[in-house]
Design goal:
alpha+beta; five-stranded antiparallel β-sheet; 18 strands; binds adenosine-5'-triphosphate
Amino acid sequence: MNGLGLHDVVVRYPGATAPAVDGVSLHVAPGEVLALLGPSGCGKSSLLRAVAGLEPLAGGAVTWDGASVVDVPVHRRGFGLVFQDGQLFTHRDVGGNVAYGLSSGGLSWRSSASGRSHRVAELLELVGLAGYERREVATLSGGERQRVALARALAPAPRLLLLDEPLSALDRSLRERLAVDLRAVLVATGTTAVFVTHDQDEAFAVADRVAVLADGRLLQVDTPPELWLRPASREVARFLGYEAFVPVGDPAAAPLLAATGPRSGSVLALAEGAFVVTPGDTAAKGTVLGVTSRRGRSEVRVDVPGVGPVTALAPVGARWDAGDVVGLRIDGSAIASLD
Ligand SMILES: Nc1ncnc2c1ncn2[C@@H]1O[C@H](COP(=O)(O)OP(=O)(O)OP(=O)(O)O)[C@@H](O)[C@H]1O
């Protein structure tokens, strides 16, 4: 099979009671971007490092185009790496950092100085930093550094790019913008990539498919819409942000099913926003537990009979006190079903 193959990969650290990666099998097709998503300590980085060749395998195999790379040293795998902190060379300027990436490739622009500088300019333009060649690394913002790290890693046209939480040191709004830009760059260059993150939104923004890991095991791998609409288990659903579960046969499910239409699974999973606080006669009611404000809207913790505590959305500025009973409209698009 072309692309990256993981076959029952096991990573075990000396002295650890359980393996960090415990029999993970996955395939990443050429040109595909796969996110490894999971809580801290679930083994995402260990798996990525095993693919890179930075950690030895305790079991299983890593293949590229069907051939094992287990005995191929890190620098001969043709895989690029981007880390959380970019790891730029501070004694080189931006252009020097990107040109370093070129020198590790075996491609034709290596031969001429003008070919090299043209390629550096092209890569900087690709990552949104046209004209930055002579800037000192120390003068760059965190987001700019990560863009340079990406350009440097893409310079030798790696057959696989491995990104370990490349955006997690940045603040939220910058992270959201860069996630979109990162996907655009990976798609524009047709780069096959594996992207590690603990942030669901980021995984969904960057990847074609998302692999959810917990305790070193693969729980589910699917496209973002499939994963969101059909989480394979409560564990996956909880990790994606579903916060309440109602069996389909439960009386409390009736108004929910009226909003979603018939569903095939046996349990409904409710995400934040499955209820919207609405005045007037509504299908459901809840008792306010508390109110917080986030990103220009109010989030109201409400206790809904038969469902439990959930986060309902409300217009910003609206005021309630704990104990108030509020009407709730149901948004079927925030309700998934599982077996
Ligand atoms: N070098 C190491 N030596 C021993 N144990 C390690 C080492 N690196 C990681 N571990 C352990 O392996 C498990 C998986 O760690 P890993 O860093 O792969 O998880 P992660 O999902 O990437 O976490 P995070 O999001 O916090 O980086 C953890 O229990 C961790 O403590």
